[in-house]
TrEMBL record, chain A:
Assigned keywords, A-Z: 2Fe-2S, Iron, Iron-sulfur, Metal-binding, Redox-active center
Keyword Metal-binding: yes
InterPro entries reported for this sequence: Glutaredoxin, GRX_PICOT-like, Monothiol_GRX-rel, Thioredoxin-like_sf
Organism expressing this protein natively: Citrullus colocynthis (colocynth)
Gene3D superfamilies listed in its UniProt record: Glutaredoxin
Pfam assignment, any one: Glutaredoxin
Domain Glutaredoxin stretches: 93-156
Superkingdom in the source lineage: Eukaryota
Family: Belongs to the glutaredoxin family. CGFS subfamily.
Entry protein name: Glutaredoxin domain-containing protein
From TrEMBL, chain B:
Organism annotation: Citrullus colocynthis (colocynth)
The protein's name: Protein BOLA2
Pfam family, one: BolA
Family from the record: Belongs to the BolA/IbaG family.
Gene3D superfamilies named in the record: BolA-like
InterPro entries noted in UniProt: BOL2 (IPR045115), BolA (IPR002634), BolA-like_sf (IPR036065)
Coiled-coil residue spans: none
Region described as Disordered: spans on this chain: 1-21
Length: 182, 94
């Protein structure tokens, strides 16, 4: 069995409703706060994300696996995969990025936001900095090591370089148009 | 810590047998950010996404330490020759 010490380090935060029970020592070691403002505008996504935080917790305590420090762990549980399936199909265009649409926290994410804005398409953004589990799980889900990750019509389209290239060649516009009509 | 330009070059050379390869360290020394131009026959018949996936897969180990890898060009030898000819032309026209 894996060591309890490192196991505690990677515990995600709980929904605030259970705050009264927050007396354990792991609280100050939480890696990231629970997804907040941008997601609360989108109850569907928010519910999904809460769902997999809870699930991954159960999953871990059952399996007793150490997710935080093994190089060969799998961050993508079947439950998380199903949740991401739902999220990427909840909107025609979904961008997983660092920061938010209005405040990108990375140059590459900023670039993709600017492209999508310039094309006047409606798109949803999800800040992966707010959820470490989602961030790690998505890398496996998309088989893509970095962010941003752009999904169109439920399918992984690419990262920043690919989006820029496709924008220049006009392919992005075509794919988006097709997605909007479907 | 970090990865060197030479490490990336040797991994890419052995795995993708590139005809042309240019790795630029854009990290300012910490080895966490690179720009790659690569021309390989293995890209033949593959879309850009698949080409990028090949590069990412080749650099799987290195990616753990790299923060940003920007693949500016991932071309087939044919595309590469074509691009060079075009840039030659525009140079001589200028």
């Amino acid at each position: 069995m894996s060591s309890v010490g490192t196991f505690q380090l990677v515990l995600p935060s709980f929904p605030s409703s259970s705050s009264s029970s927050f007396t354990n020592t792991t609280l100050s070691l939480r890696p990231l706060p629970f997804p907040t403002s941008p997601l609360q505008r989108h109850p569907h996504l928010n519910r999904n994300l809460q769902h997999f935080d809870a699930i991954s917790l159960q999953h871990r305590s059952k399996s007793g696996r150490n997710f935080g420090s093994f190089p060969c762990f799998s961050a993508l549980s079947p439950e998380l995969k199903r949740t991401i399936d739902k999220v990427v199909t909840s909107e025609k265009v979904v961008l997983f990025m660092k920061g938010s649409k209005d405040f990108p926290q990375c140059g590459f994410s900023h670039t993709v936001v600017q492209i999508l804005k310039s094309l006047n398409v409606h798109f949803e953004t999800i800040n992966i900095l707010e959820n470490e589990l989602l961030r790690q799980g998505l890398k496996e889900y998309s088989s893509w090591p970095t962010f941003p990750q752009l999904y169109i019509d439920g399918e992984f389209f690419g990262g920043c370089d690919i989006t820029v290239e496709a924008y220049k060649s006009g392919e992005l516009q075509e794919v988006l148009e097709k997605a909007m009509c479907s | 810590m970090g990865v060197t330009k030479e490490q990336l070059e040797s991994t890419l050379t052995s795995k993708l047998n590139p005809q042309h390869l240019e790795v630029t360290d854009t990290s300012g020394g910490c080895g966490a950010s690179f720009v790659v131009d690569i021309v390989s026959e293995q890209f033949e018949g593959k879309r850009l996404l698949q080409r990028h996936r090949l590069v990412n897969a080749a650099l799987e180990e290195e990616m753990k330490q790299i923060h940003a890898l920007s693949i500016k060009k991932a071309l087939t030898p044919q595309q590469w020759t074509q691009q060079q000819e075009e840039s030659e032309k525009s140079k001589s026209a200028a």
